[in-house]
Amino acid sequence: CTGNGICKCRVCECFPNFTGSACDCSLDTTPCMASNGQICNGRGTCECGTCNCTDPKFQGPTCEMCQTCLGVCAEHKDCVQCRAFDKGEKKETCSQECMHFNMTKVESRDKLPQPGQPDPLSHCKEKDVDDCWFYFTYSVNSNGEANVHVVE
Fold first, then answer.
1. Is 10 found in the same domain as 57?
2. Per-residue pLDDT of the chain (152 residues; tens, 9 = 90+)
3. Which of 34, 45, 85, 111 could serve as a FRET partner for 95 with CA atoms 20 to 30 Å apart?
4. Domain span at 120
5. pTM for the full model?
6. Which one of 42, 65, 88 terminates a domain?
7. How many CB atoms lie within 10 A of CB 76?
8. Alpha-carbon distance 39 to 77, whole Å?
9. How far apart are CA 37 and CA 64, in angstroms?
10. DSSP-H helix ranges across 63-144
11. Looking at residue 129, which CATH number applies to its domain?
């Protein structure tokens, strides 16, 4: 029973937090915890203490590595800029290209959503067309709706 249970009549009786015919499957999800506080970065399932990434773009022990991703921040920078400040590269096409997320303006950076919420959350710091920094968060909820919070 791999040291995680007792063999009785050729059947393993597993100790708490272990399962499987040989008690070789840990129910502990700690190894699956991503840096954002979510199990498998919200992009996979934790099976026997190992992440099984369900989003094919993401891999690694906690489904946090994405070689092909531009990065959520860079990917949405132009749309956040035109929606929030009416400027940037997509200013003219904003209403056609940039309506795919809900946007909320907040007064300051400490009013932005913080890690530990149930939805995958990215904190972003990007430069605008005037070479000024602007800050926003990007998250996707369980319904697949994207939500952006941007500092005024």
1. yes
2. 999 999 999 999 999 999 999 999 999 999 999 877 889 988 899 999 999 999 888 888 898 887 667 778 888 999 999 999 999 999 999 999 999 899 999 999 888 887 666 667 788 999 999 999 999 998 877 777 889 999 99
3. 111
4. 67-151
5. 0.55
6. 65
7. 22
8. 27
9. 12
10. 72-85, 94-97
11. 4.10.1240.30
